[in-house]
Amino acid sequence: xxxxxxxxxxxxxxxxxxxxxxxxxxxxxxxxxxxxxxxxxxxxxxxxxxxxxxxxxxxxxxxxxxxxxxxxxxxxxxxxxxxxxxxxxxxxxxxxxxxxxxxxxxxxxxxxxxxxxxxxxxxxxxxxxxxxxxxxxxxxxxxxxxxxxxxxxxxxxxxxxxxxxxxxxxxxxxxxxxxxxxxxxxxxxxxxxxxxxxxxxxxxxxxxxxxxxxxxxxxxxxxxxxxxxxxxxxxxxxxxxxxxxxxxxxxxxxxxxxxxxxxxxxxxxxxxxxxxxxxxxxxxxxxxxxxxxxxxxxxxxxxxxxxxxxxxxxxxxxxxxxxxxxxxxxxxxxxxxxxxxxxxxxxxxxxxxxxxxxxxxxxxxxxxxxxxxxxxxxxxxxxxxxxxxxxxxxxxxxxxxxxxxxxxxxxxxxxxxxxxxxxxxxxxxxxxxxxxxxxxxxxxxxxxxxxxxxxxxxxxxxxxxxxxxxxxxxxxxxxxxxxxxxxxxxxxxxxxxxxxxxxxxxxxxxxxxxxxxxxxxxxxxxxxxxxxxxxxx
Amino acid sequence: xxxxxxxxxxxxxxxxxxxxxxxxxxxxxxxxxxxxxxxxxxxxxxxxxxxxxxxxxxxxxxxxxxxxxxxxxxxxxxxxxxxxxxxxxxxxxxxxxxxxxxxxxxxxxxxxxxxxxxxxxxxxxxxxxxxxxxxxxxxxxxxxxxxxxxxxxxxxxxxxxxxxxxxxxxxxxxxxxxxxxxxxxxxxxxxxxxxxxxxxxxxxxxxxxxxxxxxxxxxxxxxxxxxxxxxxxxxxxxxxxxxxxxxxxxxxxxxxxxxxxxxxxxxxxxxxxxxxxxxxxxxxxxxxxxxxxxxxxxxxxxxxxxxxxxxxxxxxxxxxxxxxxxxxxxxxxxxxxxxxxxxxxxxxxxxxxxxxxxxxxxxxxxxxxxxxxxxxxxxxxxxxxxxxxxxxxxxxxxxxxxxxxxxxxxxxxxxxxx
Lengths: 537, 418
Description:
The structure holds 2 protein chains of 2 kinds. Chain A is an alpha+beta fold. Chain A has helices at 2-21, 77-85, 102-105, 131-146, 192-200, 216-219, 251-254, 264-268, 498-521; strands spanning 26-36, 42-53, 88-97, 116-124, 178-185, 224-234, 238-249, 262-263, 281-287, 294-297, 302-304, 307-311, 322-325, 342-349, 355-364, 370-378, 382-393, 396-397, 402-408, 417-425, 430-439, 455-457, 461-465, 481-482, 486-488, 524-529, 534-536. A 10-stranded mixed beta sheet of chain A has the order 5-4-3-6-7-2-1-9-12-11, with helices on one face. In chain A, strands 14-15-21-17-18 form a 5-stranded antiparallel beta sheet, with no helix packed on it. A 5-stranded antiparallel beta sheet of chain A has the order 19-20-16-23-24, with no helix packed on it. Chain B is an all-alpha fold. Chain B has one domain (2-336). Helices cover 66% and strands 1% of the residues of chain B. Chain B has helices at residues 2-6, 13-29, 32-36, 49-60, 75-83, 89-115, 123-131, 134-141, 146-161, 165-178, 180-195, 218-240, 244-250, 252-255, 266-271, 278-290, 293-299, 304-318, 325-333, 347-371, 376-403, and one strand spanning 413-417. At the A-B interface, strand 17, strand 19, helix 9 and strand 26 of A face helix 4, helix 15, helix 17, helix 18 and helix 20 of B.
């Protein structure tokens, strides 16, 4: 008991001191958004924002000289050191598991929902270290920080797709233009070893506040889950670090009957017992259903525009927000009106291990024409045959639907292909794009241990935009849409017999070589054959 | 319809040749090319029609095809196919058929030059041996660019046989840009052929000096060769707008960047090779190809055309990215050396090996890559048999070329090697 008091006193003292001695103001806000989806599932999105007021990213021109000293109280130092070491202006890292279903769940609260790991960063060009050197350093440092195989996001996965990944914050004007680097690894699996370092970056860890709901047992049991770290600079405000966690849980699965009722206990198996003392604001926001009758408990702090807001700081603890329906859940059998404006389907067709066909189907659910930036960042394992690209609009051939194509072909063992174009989908219509691809044949040492499983190909990214407006990203049509990752089946050699192959081939070459030189070097002679004895003439 | 005409030798060449070409054209106009163009045995990574089309597409859309990894055709193809030659449709069918027709015509002319006559009864048979050889017909239907390489090879040999030195050098320099190993192997006997004549002297070997070679021609020829090679290189550089084509086209035969299965010995060997031995064995395999040039040229100095023929056989067996048309050229060329037919060593064994390999290769390739019921070793084994059959054909021809000098065997005597 005494020890507990002491600890609390010390904590308070240190907080006061740090608040006094802090060179720049820091602000921490946390928010949990909960939303019931049409198919009975619940989207929960945690967002922890730390703002370093008045700070600016490091100018890469100063990379050669000593950096300013870093003193933070709330801002995660481990991340701050990486950002300043490699002079990163903007960075987004997401680790997701599962496929986001846009048709049923609508657009996610956090746009980055691509399967596996995805990292993209905007960096200024500097005199001493090139952008690629710093990109390599960044991914290795983040790999260490988050215990993820981000080191595999090497040159064979790195691309620079400017159009689909516009900066979300502002880019300072340092002279040389900023460059983007993007890489994704669909086979990366997010798990509890990634969540632990994620929680360590939070000022209250998972001890208090909204973060205490981050229970790995429940989060990794969800139908879809993913975490993200976003760093950006807002001009006039400062550097913002946003740690986000999204999950799709299924309360119908947990319930004994057929109820889609949920509360913190059923979703996370925890309640909020304490508030996080350093949080400027701490809110739980519940999107209220419009159609059904329901009860919400406890009484929300405020209720406006279909959103019930709970202030964690003022409400009674333990706080357990819950939503209860009057009637059983009826599973909607038809999804004839998808919640997104665009449905995407991407498949790799063909059973052959030598070639295949990439097929993309876009369906526009709006009654106006839709322009989409289509981005493929394909590892060299699969090579595009662009001359076979065909586009069908509502079943009839129309290659004019594609415009603004940029293409950077892949280089085996070195660089992925980047294919980007703008597709125009007519109102209520469907666009069907097909392209033949060739599958590569790898050296036996390049195959993974489970070679027969195949290779995960990164998701394609589609960014709908309004052709009349100037900005393509973050417009009302919705953000980036990630297709599910693909699995490609590559031909495998026999792994057990490198020695045999070397021996067989070498023997055959030696045999033919020997026979040829035997003929070329030895003279032909005529011998006389007698029944009893041989006699040479 | 064309084959029936070719089987009876005393057929008028003026009738049989157009009939054969027309038959070929009809085949090329069917849907066969689309079905065959992806086949790994008919076109390699260096000669594939799909890759050529892709490169032309990129070139037309302002992307440097050599900035990627898959386009390995010469810039000269880009220049030709984006300007005068059609690459798709009926036009392409005509181009590839014409290419084969020119090849067959060149082979007939080599045969005529060797016999020192303006036409023979065998002409139709020689043309049929080229146009109806499935090893040449199928890659051509698959629109593999190896057809162009074969035709250029035959054209350079034809001009050399006819004493048209400059034309021969021009053709071989063009070939250098399409496929450097072919040029390197054939260059030496080609020079010997230009300064002598193609008459058959297999039965009466004598030193090269006694053939009265015109040595004074050599130095101007070499200079001409350097000039043409430089001109073509410059043209390639201008067409592709850089020097990236050098590593992409010439480098590919040495560094083997693409391990797509083909009929040769290299691809599986270097798929299974330990990484730290790769450069060493690449060097060994490259040098191994070159090692045959000098001994064959020395042993067959009395008949340079025959030496060139044998080196084409070596190439078909051991080159880095072979297609069926490479051994096919060797086998078709046997038609112009009828004098050695009685002296083949094991013709039945060789023919059966070829039959075995040509039936099993497509089968095992399909089972491995498309059916999914076989594995890579099956196809590898059939390529080993194919290499055996090519090696056996080569040994047969070398044996026959040397044995012919001894003449008929008499009763009670046998010919052996010392």
